[in-house]
Amino acid sequence: MMSVSPAAAAATPVPPDAEQRPHTVEAPHGAKREDVYYWLRDDKREDSAMLAYLNAENAYADAMLAPLKSIEDRLYDEIVGRIQQDDSSVPYRDRGFWYYSRFETGKDYPVHARRADGAGVDALSIQAANARGDFGGEEVLLDVNQLAAGKDYYAVGDWDITRDNRILAYADDTNGRRQYTVRFKNLETGEVYPDVITGVSANLVWADDNRTLFYVENDPETLLTVRVKKHALGTPVADDVLVYEEKDDSFYMGIDRTRDDKYIVIGVGSTVSSETRYAPADNPETFTVLAPRARDVEYDADHLGDRWVIRTNADKATNFKLVTAPSNATSRKQWTDLVPHRDDVYVEGYELFDGFTAIEERAEALTRVRVLKRDGSDEFVQADEPAYAMGLSVNSEPDTAWLRYGYTSLTTPSTTFEVNTQTGERRQLKQQAVIGYDPSNYVTERVWTTSRDGKRIPVSLVYRKGFEKNGTAALLQYGYGSYGASMDPGFSVTNVSLLDRGMVYAIAHIRGGEEMGRAWYDDGKLLHKVNTFNDFIDVTDDLVRQGYAAPDRVAAYGGSAGGLLMGAISNMAPEKYRAILSQVPFVDVVTTMLDPSIPLTTNEYDEWGNPEDKTYYDYIVQYSPYDNLEAKAYPAMFVGTGLWDSQVQYWEPAKYVAKLRDLNTGEYPVVFRTNMEAGHGGKSGRFRRYRESAEMYAFMLDQLGLKDAAAR
């Protein structure tokens, strides 16, 4: 099924002088590991030998994939052909303006804009005007196409506008490393102020005085969020005042305003603990702790009217609950239950309104929205498919009976609805336009498989009508399984091209996520991490057994921590997968977790374990993909990374691929693609990522014998 052999394409890249540049990675407990490819790490991204190796791998990838260029182009054209290029988001109203983003045909980046509120102006009328190309009365806030001109990478991470609607602050990133620069623009005059703040996260909040901006400063080495500062517009950045500094490097930090705009809040959180500080937005001089941090107690809080509403796992509320507290609260002793804990329902989020509270819940691996009214009655927003994703949308104003929510499934494009919580009336505000796509041609299923230790694992499936469960089809199985992140079944414009070629697409909702509640997460981290990998493999076995796929036509896909999953299953069960797609993979767990200078390491001791503790060291080293590569046949692999990745450093996949090339005895190709201008999320721009997906999927289709399959 391979269209070209490695030898015919190009010489396999070999890192120069690898054996002459060994590095001893010393661990506590007397352990030592010789890492001959450690030299590929260069924090400055300047080492000539390292860059030469990455460029050689890219050249090899170019040569290997050249015979597949026609199918890549077809896939890209199909994907882009489904996209309505002059699309716009659903407008939302805030302080007298309707805000939205829109794209122009052929352009990569959005235009962020607003229109003044008035008679006959609402979300639907603005969308209709945008669709006609009628931009009269529009005020452009940021044309990201202009800002990105001439740059290899560009992203606007966050923006905020003063309470008087006059001054815009925005944070941009020019290399994908998520180290942002804050800039200021007068929306009345167009003037760009000389104030420039560097080295910050994408998190900005104005105070009520319309000149003081709160921001979060990053550590320049670890990139951790460490300090909240405030900048007075027009004053030297060097004089910015330190508001709060977090000394515990296992905590992340962020800032926000409460629902009623009464308070500015500073939130800090680790994997197992959190803490909120609040100060009046009209005089944010002194921040008060809402409830002191405590290990194994997490909470997030919002304020409306005369009370705080807090989501927390305190008092053994494993699946979280909602409590209330008075506006001047300083202790958990002041908390009163609003929505009690339930063992079978996970409380995922909430939004406060004057007349009700909207709650995002999860039960039996499905999301739902519950409306809790002031009188204590409640009701659920209904769904019509067996596998779907539902969640709160942008609800910018609390003084309304209308609730916006989003809905999607593996067959239904992303849709925004609003429902009147008093009358039950429902309106569709927008559905993602997918040109030439007919959802009635596709079928989605929710099936359950059983893991080797008896756990029921939910799986979401989609395929084109006419598919026969006879054990001959090709399958792409996706998984993540870390950080409690749930991989809900949502529509993908790229996957349609796979379904139209007869493939089945499956999402394995494995342990490590929270699809089945908080216990599902706890059973897939720390000393239970191997459950994540076993679950994924067991799902594969069961889908093959049930006839959803041929045993020799299964591909697997994961990114970041999902790339760890890919590396683990490749070591544990390489014979079960014909192709592995691994993007920005976290594959060198031991070395990374032993180095607190690397971004995210200290924040994640409670996710993976601190290898300074021998119990965790011994456990991690058993599954770390880089450490467990051995001389045997591996599946075909497509591995991707970004040189400027701040989440998973480029050298992890680089080292992994180099060592894999040394040990792999198999006949299938390994392709390693490094985006030299990109970070963790890949290249910027809405079309570039589709080109990357088309290249990766072309590789997979070739390996699965579908290179020449025509799309139906």
From TrEMBL:
The segment(s) forming the Peptidase S9A N-terminal domain are: 16-432
- Keyword Protease listed? The answer is yes
Return one GO MF term. Answer: serine-type endopeptidase activity
Sorted alphabetically, which PANTHER family does this protein's record hold? PROLYL ENDOPEPTIDASE-LIKE, PROTEASE FAMILY S9A OLIGOPEPTIDASE
| Keyword annotations from UniProtKB, A to Z | Hydrolase, Protease, Serine protease
Positions with biased composition (Low complexity): 1-12
Q: Which GO terms describe its biological process?
A: proteolysis
Q: Where is composition skewed (Basic and acidic residues) in this entry?
A: 18-27
Task: Specify the protein name.
Answer: S9 family peptidase
Similarity comment = Belongs to the peptidase S9A family.
The protein's matches in InterPro entries, at most eight in alphabetical order, are given as: AB_hydrolase_fold, Pept_S9A_N, Peptidase_S9_cat, Peptidase_S9A, Serine_Peptidase_S9A
Q: What is the lineage of its organism?
A: Bacteria, Pseudomonadati, Pseudomonadota, Gammaproteobacteria, Lysobacterales
- Domain Peptidase S9 prolyl oligopeptidase catalytic: residue ranges: 490-705
Q: Which domain of life is it from?
A: Bacteria
An example Pfam family from this entry, by short name, is: Peptidase_S9_N
Region described as Disordered: spans on this chain: 1-27
